[in-house]
Amino acid sequence: MQNKYDILVNVLDTIRKKAPEEYKKYHPLDSEFEKLNQARSRAYIHLFLKVKFGILDFLERENYITDESNDAGIDAYYIDVDTKTIYFIQSKFRITKENFENKDIKLSEILSMETDRILDGNICNEEEIKYNNKIQQMISKISDIEDIARYSYKAIILANVKDEIKRSQLQKLTGGLPGEVYNFQRCYTELLFPLITGTFYNVY
After folding, report:
1. Are 40 and 9 in contact (CB under 8 A)?
2. Is 203 a residue whose pLDDT tops 50?
3. Distance CA 12, CA 193 (A)
4. How many CA atoms lie within 13 A of 89 on its CB side?
5. Is residue 6 predicted with pLDDT exceeding 60?
6. Can you give the pTM of this predicted structure?
7. Fewer beta carbons under 10 A from the terminal one: N or C of the chain?
8. CA quadruple 82, 180, 35, 2: dihedral, nearest 10
């Protein structure tokens, strides 16, 4: 009988295999372990976007994924016009069951989210290196929102975070944004289970 982690990996493989053939990063050979892990990590973000926001189309989800070099510590985002909330997502997928369920994300990785610079409209980091195209597109989309003053912001951490980290401390790490953590348990119960039972997508 498969454990939850193995089922999760199977789901991620199903998601990535539905990517168009030209998106080669999702279609590594089984022997290309590092590339396979990277593809699953990216599919993990797809899983979140699909289940939590009901984005069924692969290419639409892909547009929200910013995980490349010079990504301001932001792996993905989503602008919810219904709830007027902008989500910034930081994700860390682990390639073994033990690590996925027990290893915490490094606080420096959360701290790398440059949400304050992004919301100020900066297109470069402190070293004057331009953010990647996806991040710049995100900045442009946010700046085009006419009623932006009515929007709130939230940082989503798709990873395990040390139990002793308080909500107020997490907010400092995410550039002052309220943070919400999806640890391995929430992944199983709120992402994986709703998908495999067909009960996913409730308004966030």
Report:
1. yes
2. no
3. 13
4. 26
5. yes
6. 0.91
7. N
8. -100
Token pair for 134: 């996806």
Q: How many CB atoms lie within 10 A of CB 123?
A: 13
The per-residue pLDDT for range 10-61, each reduced to its tens digit, is 999 999 999 999 999 999 998 999 999 999 999 999 999 999 999 999 999 9
Helices and strands per DSSP (H, E), number in the chain: 10, 4
In 10 A of CB 1, how many CB atoms? Answer: 4
Q: Do 179 and 170 touch, CB atoms closer than 8 A?
A: yes
The first and second tokens of residue 143, run together, are 């700046």
> So what CATH class is 4-197?
alpha beta
> Which residues have CB under 8 Å from 157's CB, separation 6+?
90, 91, 105, 110, 170, 174, 179, 180, 181, 182
> What is the chain's length?
204
One-letter amino acid identity for 147? Answer: D
